[in-house]
Amino acid sequence: MRLSRYFLPTLKETPSEAQIVSHRLMLRAGLIRQHAAGIYTWLPLGFAVLRKIEQIVREEQNRAGAQELLMPTIQSADLWRESGRYDDYGKEMLRITDRHDRDLLYGPTAEEVITDVFRNAVRSYKDLPKTLYHIQWKFRDEVRPRFGIMRGREFLMKDAYSFDLDSDAARHSYNQMFVAYLRTFARLGLKAIPLRAETGPIGGDLSHEFIVLASTGESEVHCHRALLDKTIPDDVDYDGDLQPLVNDWTGLYAAADDMHDVTKAASLGGSLVTARGIEVGHIFHFGTKYSKPMGATVTGPDGEDVTVAMGSYGIGVSRLVGAIIEASHDDNGIIWPESVAPFHVGLLNLKAGDTATDETCARLYQALGPDRVLYDDRDERAGAKFAAMDLIGLPWQVIVGPKGVAKGMVELKNRATGAREEVSVDSALARLA
Ligand code: ATP
Ligand code: MG
Ligand code: MG
Ligand code: MG
């Protein structure tokens, strides 16, 4: 993409309404614009990142055996009356009435919708287990929308739902998602810590929150230091027994404020870390909380009806954009992990209009591929170009100036380390291919 044509409205001034760094940078780097409180437009650069995150989430869901579908954003209130949650959910639910005076709502989550789909389609235990998910916009009328897309009212969530014959089988589905979450966050360049959590309004008996440490996070986290250094294997057999892997991650102390056990934590001594964190994912095993009132049953092996055991599993896809920036930035701007970067390379023409630099840039642009390169071909000062590229945080910069080009050389800069190297055009191409 040529920057001269790209819709990238960056800001020079720090927007005064933004209290945390990710919100400031998302506005300054032209990723989002606020439409109304907690409701945002995703501009091309922000939207590209959102799509990349979504794709990684999708790949890891699919790898774990979940199947993608798409449920509506607008739901029927009647289903929520069946589960008993219509009144319980309170003011966070945006309630809508249509022209026939029917009660609708903008979905804050989708347990009722998926349970309805399931009960109308699945009859036999032979069709179990099933884990279904979608990546869809949600609306929650948050009392205090803040920190930009981090606590929006409209936000993009991946929510998965598992259906099993009994609680043990449901535990396996839960473990699959647990491991898929560890892999997803690792691919996004994040350290996310699973914490035992309260089940809250979703209900149920087993739950973990996944928290990314960040000083601006809204949750307080207490955990064993060793959790920060754990890695997740590349080759997970999702059909095999995942319990040892899950035990390995849940054996160390880790709790949010509401589950914090001061005595137990004190026994960790110097290994205890207390920090702030951002909730990026939350998984629940809740058994028959929805299947029972909604009559989601299958015929079991002995011919009797069995109420299915369920779980639900959320990832805050849009919140992750902010969480990644909180975890990866410096004074000059964003530092995207390669896996989610909107472009791989920023190409800076320091003397646009000069035949030699134009030709070298054209060659690099073509060879690296216009969809992987953001080419700053504008007639601007070098300083402004450096600042803009650092602000938007692409992993690599290729700096093309007349002096270097005369020797057949360009400069290659790594945004994360700041390291610069003078290399030949060919070797820049080879390195960035
Ligand atoms: P929070 O504690 O931040 O209000 P939650 O516990 O209410 O989140 P869940 O119902 O667990 O949220 O939803 C699953 C995921 O959706 C959360 O882990 C979070 O990443 C994301 N999420 C929830 N509310 C918002 C929001 N208002 N804006 C952006 N993402 C959100
Ligand atoms: Mg909430
Ligand atoms: Mg929460
Ligand atoms: Mg939660």
From TrEMBL:
PROSITE patterns: AA_TRNA_LIGASE_II. It is an enzyme of class 6 (ligase). GO terms for cellular component: cytosol. Its EC number is 6.1.1.15. Transmembrane segments: none annotated. Pfam families: HGTP_anticodon, tRNA-synt_2b. It comes from the Bacteria. Keywords: Aminoacyl-tRNA synthetase, ATP-binding, Cytoplasm, Ligase, Nucleotide-binding, Protein biosynthesis. The keyword Cytoplasm applies. Its main location: cytoplasm. GO terms for molecular function: ATP binding; proline-tRNA ligase activity. It catalyses: tRNA(Pro) + L-proline + ATP = L-prolyl-tRNA(Pro) + AMP + diphosphate. Residues 38-337 form the Aminoacyl-transfer RNA synthetases class-II family profile domain. It is found in: Cytoplasm. GO terms for biological process: prolyl-tRNA aminoacylation. Catalyzes the attachment of proline to tRNA(Pro) in a two-step reaction: proline is first activated by ATP to form Pro-AMP and then transferred to the acceptor end of tRNA(Pro). Belongs to the class-II aminoacyl-tRNA synthetase family. ProS type 2 subfamily. Homodimer. This is Proline--tRNA ligase. It comes from Roseospira visakhapatnamensis.
